[in-house]
Model the fold of this input.
Amino acid sequence: MQSSPTTHPPLLNTFNCTARGGCERDVSSEMYSATSVGNYPTSSKETTASPGLTEGTSQTIMDENEQASAPPLSSMEVIAGYENITFDSVPLPPPSYENSILGQPPPERNDVASIPAMTEEQVRAALLDHVSEHCCYGSGPAKTMVIRDVLMNSAFHYTLETFTEKRETAWAYEPYDGKHLDTAMNGPAPSPWDVLVNPSKHFVNEQIKLEIPHTAYAKMCHACIGNGRLRCSRCIGLGQMCCTWCNGSGHHHKNHHHHHHHDDVCNHCLGRGQQRCFRCNGLGQVTCRMCSGYGQLKCYVQMTVTWTNHLEDHISDVTKLPKELVREVSGHVAFEELQSRVWPITHFPDRAINEASSRIVNFHTSAFPMEKIIQQRHRVRIVPIAEVHCTWKDSFTTFFVYGFENKVYFPDYPQQCCWGCTLL
Done:
């Protein structure tokens, strides 16, 4: 026997719509009967039957605009060792360093090798390459100027890298779709610094987030009270909106010739004065964004691990070459050391480098109290600098050739503008 189709009662008109335009919300219809509008909620906290509940029970349908941002802390379970965590990440002090690491003697270090000097031919070739890279520079001075002297100097570039790890914990939650949970039934939760996590590469900034084992559990979604849906805020749960084409009248008023007036049925609402709400597709309810419609949340302690490469450097240079240029070129690595904790340099020929190493290493020792030092690396690069004294048309000038790339610093080059630039 074929069952008769289910009939739904007509929706209540909750708008006072007039032909003059505009729709005024009928306040008296805000509290409407669930039986007269297809079981839509009567208020922001209307109780209605939900799928999966036994007959006679009810759940609260929350309004979409009343959705909370996070579960209240009072509703979270207490995890041993994580009793005081919140939804804000808090850094945790790292374990103390082993005395065996701090008490190691400084390693033996080799003498620093010298670098070869530059010839006049190499200096002029570097200058010609520099001029060719600037379209407006004239090549005449580079070809004809007289090189009087080439003074070889070196810039010493010291760098210390301290690779650290920071761990932070906080409550986290996500929609729970019924999959397996690593709960406290599997054992006690380990402390944050006991969880084995390794960076993908040392001396590279990186951050990962992971779940602390044995801290997960499922709870009812606090936003929708376990329903998985919320009342649509656009149509307040009715599923219908005032037709914007006819302003709720159901007709279009048209003027014809000879002052005849005619009302046509609105083609958009078919004369009903209302249209289906596009936000909820006429259902009056939308899926809860907090739990994605599942009605439950998975809560767990989330640990954020951040690896940071802290870099400090010092440049010792007696020339007038800008120090930032030294950082941009390559040089001879005269010294490099990689240790869990490095010792300051004391054997370098330049006293300024030894003092800078001692100052920076001691600073990094206590600069990151909430981070664990994984490894340290320091090095000294020797960047060759040729200070060139030359004359051109009875004018004395100086420029620099620096780095293994033979870069040129010549801010006072004689011909920096061609005739075209001069006319402009």
In short: Residues 1-59 have pLDDT under 50 and may be disordered. The longest helix spans residues 351-366.
